[in-house]
């Protein structure tokens, strides 16, 4: 018996706000036409109440053959007992592809279970602030009605007893982003309670708030009391400040590897020209120069905030540094925003 805790989160918005989360990193989706199954590329695991066969809409099920995609050369088997390219597999909801036509193999589906559910295990506790859901687009719009997002650390009742948010309708093939004050949890469940239903999810994305806020900061040197933590105190009137030196840098250790979607930098309110030429890097190396470059700040007005898209770069560290001699690095604020689920490179299908 499922017991539903109907505690509502404080939603900021329940609407499609895709423009607030530019997805510039997705060009690889249309460039790649092979299934590049690699467990190392995803930090999450997913499971659902059952693996469905999309009964009731056979016309969309590629002759009912779940292996239909394999024969077209779009997928490569890497495990005999499990193939993430299965039509309807739970993994299809985190393959980084919002393709909403079920037959193209990028959607999960359960059987017509009572209280069908899907769960992603983030493998660690995160402060989740946003979940986006992409509904199936080729049919069956109403099957997702009444869906709940549940976030928490319990696997009681398969994680479906964690705190719940009831989200509004998601039109055919649409992606809706649901935002709320952060909820701490390792498991994110989606469940359609109270009826026998097929749960189809063409993409689920889970986001956390500024990951830098719980990281550890450091910088190449401290000028007076202007330590590296001043870039994360929420105050524009405080800023970090290195000595005048060669190649000054600031770094935040996120403590976990993120796929970084964007970095925000707020310049100090005076002497803002000092930031010109600063380089933003993402990666896993303490040697800052081994990390990949996300962006170079050509110029940024005094006190201004700029957002830099990093295209899902993976890394534990975000570094800002200024190449050259006789440089000073000052940052009023910094933010790192990343993916926790979704945007993996598994099982790409032709789009
Ligand atoms: Ca998908
Ligand atoms: Ca500050």
Automatic annotation (TrEMBL):
Ranges for domain Fucolectin tachylectin-4 pentraxin-1? 67-208, 209-343
Biological process (GO) annotations? regulation of cellular defense response; regulation of complement activation, lectin pathway
Molecular-function GO term, any one: metal ion binding
Alphabetized UniProt keyword annotations: Calcium, Disulfide bond, Lectin, Metal-binding
Its transmembrane ranges are: none
The cross-references to InterPro entries, in alphabetical order and at most eight, read: BG_Antigen-Binding_Lectin, FTP1, Galactose-bd-like_sf
Which Gene3D superfamilies is this protein grouped with?
Answer: Galactose-binding domain-like
Query: Which domain of life does the UniProt lineage start with?
Result: Eukaryota
Q: Which Pfam families match?
A: F5_F8_type_C_2
SUPFAM superfamilies in the record: Galactose-binding domain-like
Its biological purpose is as follows: Acts as a defensive agent. Recognizes blood group fucosylated oligosaccharides including A, B, H and Lewis B-type antigens. Does not recognize Lewis A antigen and has low affinity for monovalent haptens.
Question: How is this protein organized at the quaternary level?
Answer: Homotrimer.
Q: Which PANTHER family match?
A: FTP DOMAIN-CONTAINING PROTEIN (PTHR45713), FUCOLECTIN TACHYLECTIN-4 PENTRAXIN-1 DOMAIN-CONTAINING PROTEIN (PTHR45713:SF20)
The similarity comment for this entry is: Belongs to the fucolectin family.
Name of the molecule in the record: Fucolectin tachylectin-4 pentraxin-1 domain-containing protein
Provenance organism: Sinocyclocheilus rhinocerous
């Amino acid at each position: 018996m499922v017991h539903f805790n109907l505690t509502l989160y404080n939603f900021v918005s329940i609407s499609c706000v895709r423009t607030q989360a530019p997805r510039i990193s997705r060009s690889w989706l249309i460039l790649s036409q092979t299934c590049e199954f690699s467990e190392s590329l995803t930090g999450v695991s997913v499971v659902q109440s059952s693996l469905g066969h999309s009964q009731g809409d056979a016309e969309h099920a590629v002759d009912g053959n779940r292996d239909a995609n394999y024969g077209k050369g779009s997928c490569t088997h890497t495990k005999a007992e499990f193939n993430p390219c299965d039509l309807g597999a739970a993994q299809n909801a985190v393959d980084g592809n919002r393709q909403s036509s079920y037959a193209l193999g990028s959607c999960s589906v359960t059987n017509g279970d009572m209280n069908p559910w899907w769960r992603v295990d983030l493998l660690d506790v995160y402060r989740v602030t946003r979940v986006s859901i992409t509904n199936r687009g080729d049919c069956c719009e109403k099957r997702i009605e009444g869906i709940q997002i549940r976030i928490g650390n319990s696997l009681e009742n398969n994680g479906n007893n964690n705190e719940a948010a009831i989200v509004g309708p998601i039109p055919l093939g649409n992606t809706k982003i649901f935002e709320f004050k952060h909820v701490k949890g390792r498991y994110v469940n989606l469940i359609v309670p109270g009826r026998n239903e097929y749960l189809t999810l063409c993409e689920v994305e889970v986001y956390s708030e500024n990951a830098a806020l719980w990281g550890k900061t450091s910088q190449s040197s401290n000028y007076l009391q202007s330590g590296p933590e001043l870039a994360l105190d929420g105050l524009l009137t405080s800023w970090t400040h290195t000595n005048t030196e060669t190649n000054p840098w600031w770094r935040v250790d996120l403590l976990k590897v993120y796929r970084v979607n964007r970095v925000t930098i707020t310049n100090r309110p005076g002497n803002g020209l000092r930031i010109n030429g600063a380089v933003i890097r993402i990666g896993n190396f303490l040697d800052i120069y081994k990390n990949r470059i996300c962006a170079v700040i050509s110029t940024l007005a005094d006190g201004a905030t700029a957002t830099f898209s990093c295209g899902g770069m993976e890394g534990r560290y975000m570094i800002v540094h200024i190449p050259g001699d006789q440089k000073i690095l000052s940052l009023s604020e910094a933010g790192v925003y990343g993916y926790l689920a979704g945007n993996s490179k598994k099982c790409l299908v032709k789009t």
